[in-house]
Amino acid sequence: MYVTRDRALTAPAHDTAAVVSELRDRAEITDALYRFALGQDLKDKDLFASAFAADAEVDFRPAAAKWGAEPPLMSGRDTIVTTILDLFAGRVDTTHQVTNPRIAIEGDTARLTALVEAQHLLTADHSTYALLKNPYDVDLVREEDRWVIRRLRIDNTWFTGEPAAIFG
User: Fold this and answer.
1) What mean pLDDT is predicted for residues 100-105?
2) How buried is 141 (Cβ within 10 angstroms: 0-12 exposed, 13-18 middle, 19+ buried)?
3) pLDDT digits (tens, 9 = 90+) for 12-28
4) Angle at 121 between CA 115 and CA 126, to 5 degrees
5) How many Å is the maximal CA-CA distance in the chain?
C-alpha cells in the first residue's frame, strides 16, 4: 500500500537527462495532490478538478469508518468535484498540509503515498472543528505533460474534534 523503496530516485545518477525527467515527473506527481488540497481550501473548482483523471475514484470510507460515518465511494471527476465542494460550500473552511510524499513511477503510472493533515472548521463557528491526520494512497496517470489522480484512498491515523464538521 505505501511506497517503501529505499531511495527517492531510480534514474542512474550519471544519466543527467533521465534524472531531470524523473525529477520533473516527481514534481508534477506531487503537484496533483497539492492541487487536490489547495483546490478544496480555496474552493476553486477548476484547480480542484485539475487534480483528477476523468475516471477518478476517491475513497474516504476507510477514514470515515473510524468515527462511524459511511460516505459513498466517489467515482468520476465531475462527481468528485461537485460532491466535495458542494459539501463544504458556505459551511466548512478547510486547510490541508501535505507531508512525507513518497513516489514510485512505472512508465505512465505512479503511486504516491503521503500524510495529510486536514482541518475542517464550521464557517459560522470555528470552535466546531475536525482535525485529522490521514495517510493517503494515490494512484496517478500521466496526461500529456502533467499527472492526475486516478484513485485516492484516504485512511485515518487519528482525529480530534467533531466529525460532523466534515459531513454535517
Assistant:
1) 97
2) middle
3) 999 999 999 999 999 99
4) 140
5) 56
